[in-house]
Design a protein that fits this description.
Elements: H1 2-26, H2 54-58, H3 73-90, H4 95-118, H5 126-139, H6 144-164, H7 173-210, H8 215-219, H9 226-242, H10 268-282, E1 288-294, E2 298-307, E3 310-320, H11 323-330, H12 335-348, E4 354-359, E5 365-370, H13 376-387, E6 398-405, E7 408-418, H14 419-431, E8 435-441, H15 442-446, E9 456-461, E10 465-472, E11 475-483, H16 484-487, H17 489-493, H18 496-507, H19 509-514, E12 521-526, H20 529-542, E13 547-549, E14 556-558, H21 564-567, H22 572-581, E15 591-593, H23 603-632, H24 636-674, H25 679-689, E16 694-703, E17 708-716, H26 719-730, E18 735-746, E19 752-761
Parallel strand pairs: 1-4, 3-14, 4-8, 9-12, 12-13
Antiparallel strand pairs: 1-2, 2-3, 5-7, 6-7, 8-15, 9-10, 10-11, 16-17, 17-19, 18-19
Helix pairs in contact: 1-3, 1-4, 3-4, 4-5, 4-9, 5-7, 6-7, 7-9
């Protein structure tokens, strides 16, 4: 409670300071000097006048010195800022994250308030706000790439709208959208934009309905976009932090479909592939990689280098874990494994520092879950409890990934991996000084070889197990594993029909229903050539579809120094490690570790990107220089004509500006002339104030700089009476300014004193 109370008090103080900043910005004044004062009487404010909320309530919304009524908006802005500061403190986060959130909220509120007051965005605030959003992403461990993509796409989209309709949007709105894109990313950025447009339209309609006269003109008045845009962005962030709204990975959705759900668009897969292509172009795979396939008994290391469109296999190792190391890994002791791997890698020439890991199916559990009548978010919440009944892991000891089944939204494919295995892989990568780019399930890595097939079935022949996997264009739909001990010794070598029937029964009802007419293609991997041929004959007798062994030559090639005998060597571990290296058209759901935020700033990656940008910039510069040279050849005559017409254009612009100034002056003069002084209040005041020795001979009302001014001409028998009259008028609270303009002695005429007093009245719309 103390934390929240302190946050609210700090927010109210920040709101009071923001009100001061907004007022000084509108007057083009300094924020620090002069000190806070009343704008009506100019009296400096004491500390007790600056207590947020309480000062306004205690003084009943008026200045303590002159009684002028204060705007009620000051009270509500202070209260709103305090509530938002309290809300920011309620969300989890470290102290630096909380500080950046408070600063960002302050700038968003200041921008919104200034836009509401002046219909103008102060672009000087955009730069610090953008820096704060980038710092917030770094502190939260998020990648900068989604923020930069959101800034470019959202700002570019609004700039395109402004180019098509210049009167429909201000020049600062695209820049504000780009800054908010750094914070929200592409998906949430477009959601907030469309939501802000809907709320702004509702506001315009409501304003038109409330207007009694000329509703069309009322609806055509300009509307500030910053309050709606910033408010909707803040609302979406609050909903995401509270878990009310379903969040999507920023790199998985095409930015232009930020308001659409994935399954509600008919050609979503092609658009998702286009988004994956854009992601690979912005964050490409390194040119040299190390694939690591980890299992209970074996580990496979493959070092590859990219050559044009293919990956060239430079080194590969297939090793069995020594007994002592295997027992240590079971107890999460990785010191011996790191020392052993370092020695092996040094002897075999494996030097790559960027690695992708894949986990064999014996290290994890895949299950098909049926959760009907639930949304995807409700399925995500219920899946951990449902799968606990089918896996041997305890509650809270595993990490779960889910993938909805196509055409069956109530069916999910769940992949569970123990946390200790994931932590062991990360510790191995840290000990070997490898930068872990991806850690995923091996069945998902296998699917990258099958992205061109519509609905393939993959059968993996291992020494002690038989594994089946079903895919849709490379996306894993289901998998199962049959151990040798479950099938029986004789059936393993002879009764292939019984083995395949057991594999099929383990697949689940959704797979059986989808593939009841057979897959579009059958592929085999692993095993000896004799086993492969026997299985191909058996599968072709079951389904009338193409059946073949998996080939890797279209995507991977062996290094030239490998002999012919080693080129054909292709085991299950090698095939899995190579599959994990392929980037893939889209990111799969069974990826348990992705590139960290620091990977975005990797020098080697951005060296390649920088070279490409430099080449493109050079090509654009050369093309622009050539076009400029061609255009300059024919512009001499045009420049001469423009110089001749420049004088007329300047004269015409000066006349237009002079007419605008004249119209403005005439309008102000007419308004001032229509203002009448409050004679009912002034005459009794003058009657009580004038001494008996003074009398008025002429009263004249004229226009002054601050409003209407009253000129009092009169006579007096004594000079001291005139000075006493001026002092009395100056002490009246209704008088804004009193000055003695003329004082003459008329001794030759009557021996009296003639005077002229200029009096400026203080009242509503009269004077200062």
């Amino acid at each position: 409670m103390a934390k929240y109370l302190l946050s609210f008090i700090l927010g109210c103080c920040a709101g009071s300071f923001l009100c001061l900043c907004a007022d000084r910005f509108q007057r083009d004044g300094s924020v620090l000097f002069p000190r806070s004062h009343c704008e009506t009487c100019g009296h400096p404010l004491a500390p007790r006048d600056l207590v947020p909320l309480f000062s306004y309530l205690c003084q009943r919304g008026r200045c303590r010195y002159c009684g002028e009524k204060l705007p009620v908006s000051l009270f509500w802005w202070e209260a709103l800022t305090g509530c938002l500061f309290l809300l920011a403190a309620w969300f989890p986060g470290t102290l630096p994250v909380l500080g950046v959130r408070w600063l960002s909220l302050s700038l968003l509120l200041l921008l919104s308030w200034l836009d509401m007051e002046e219909l103008q965005l102060y672009e000087g605030l955009f730069c610090p706000l953008g820096i704060l959003f980038l710092v917030l992403r770094v502190l939260k461990g998020q990648s900068l790439l989604p923020g930069l993509a959101g800034a470019v796409l959202l700002g570019g989209f609004l700039q395109l709208i402004r180019c098509l309709s210049p009167r429909g949007m201000g020049a600062g709105d695209p820049k504000l959208a780009a800054v908010l894109g750094l914070w929200l990313g592409p998906v949430q950025g477009f959601r907030s934009f469309f939501l802000a447009m809907g709320m702004a339209l509702s506001f315009v309609l409501a304003k038109g309905l409330r207007a009694r006269e000329d509703r069309r003109a009322k609806m055509r008045e300009p509307v500030p976009l910053a309050p709606f845009f910033c408010g909707c962005a803040l609302l979406l962030q609050i909903l995401e932090l509270t878990g009310t709204m379903e969040s999507f990975p920023e790199t998985d959705l095409l930015p232009m479909l930020g308001m659409l759900e994935g399954g509600s668009f008919p050609r979503w897969r092609k658009l998702a592939q286009a988004g994956g292509w854009l992601r690979r172009k912005l964050a490409p795979w390194p040119a040299q990689l190390l694939g690591v396939q980890i299992g209970k008994e074996e580990v496979t290391l493959v070092q590859v280098r990219q050559q044009d469109e293919h990956w060239e296999v430079e080194r590969f190792l297939e090793l069995c874990w020594p007994d002592r190391i295997r027992k240590g890994l079971a107890r999460q002791q990785t010191e011996d494994a790191v020392l052993w791997l370092r020695e092996v890698c040094a002897k075999r020439g494996i030097t790559v520092r960027e690695a992708v890991f894949s986990l064999e199916p014996d290290l994890m559990a895949f299950q098909e879950l049926s959760l009907p009548g639930m949304s995807f978010r409700e399925q995500q919440e219920a899946a951990p409890w449902e799968i606990l009944q089918q896996i041997p892991y305890g509650p809270g000891t595993f990490q779960l990934a889910l993938s909805p089944f196509p055409d069956h939204p109530e069916t999910l494919l769940a992949g569970a991996v123990p946390e200790e295995i994931l932590e062991t892989c990360r510790t191995l990568a840290e000990g070997m000084d490898w930068r872990l780019l991806r850690l995923e399930a091996a069945p998902q890595a296998w699917g990258r070889w099958l992205e061109e097939a519509a609905a393939p079935f993959l059968l993996v022949l291992a020494e002690n197990s038989l594994q089946g996997a079903w895919y849709e264009a490379g996306r894993l739909l289901g998998t199962c594993r049959l151990e040798r001990g479950e099938a029986g010794r004789d059936a393993w070598t002879e009764d292939r029909e019984s083995l395949f029937q057991q594999v099929w029964e383990k697949a689940g009802p959704a797979i059986g229903e989808r593939f009841q007419e057979g897959p579009s293609a059958v592929f085999l991997a692993g095993g000896s050539p004799e086993e492969q041929q026997a299985w191909l004959d058996h599968l072709q007798s079951l389904w009338d579809c193409p059946a073949a062994c998996l080939e890797v030559e279209p995507l991977c090639q062996w290094a030239p120094y490998y002999g012919d005998g080693n080129r054909n060597r292709f085991s299950l571990g090698l095939w899995s490690a190579l599959g994990s290296i392929l980037p893939g058209k889209e990111k799969g759901p069974f990826c348990y570790a992705s590139p960290s935020g620091s990977g975005f700033l990797d020098p080697e990656r951005w060296t390649r990107v920088g070279k490409g940008l430099l080449a493109c910039s050079l090509a654009v510069w050369l093309a622009g220089t050539g076009a400029h040279f061609l255009v300059e050849r024919n512009l001499g005559k045009c420049r001469q004509q423009l110089r001749q017409a420049a004088g007329w254009e300047r004269l015409w612009r000066e006349q237009q500006e002079a007419q605008k100034v004249q119209k403005w002056q005439e309008k102000n003069r007419a308004e001032l002339l229509h203002r009448q002084l409050p004679w009912g209040e002034m005459l009794p005041l003058l009657g009580h104030t004038f001494p008996s020795s003074c009398w008025i001979t002429r009263v004249e009302q004229e226009e002054g700089q601050g409003g209407q001014v009253l000129l009092l001409e009169g006579k007096s028998l004594e000079r001291e009476s005139i000075l006493q009259l001026v002092r009395c008028l100056q002490q009246q609270p209704q008088a804004a300014g009193v000055g003695l303009e003329r004082l003459e002695h008329q001794e030759e005429v009557s021996g009296t004193e003639e005077f002229t007093i200029r009096l400026q009245w203080k009242g509503e719309n009269h004077g200062t």
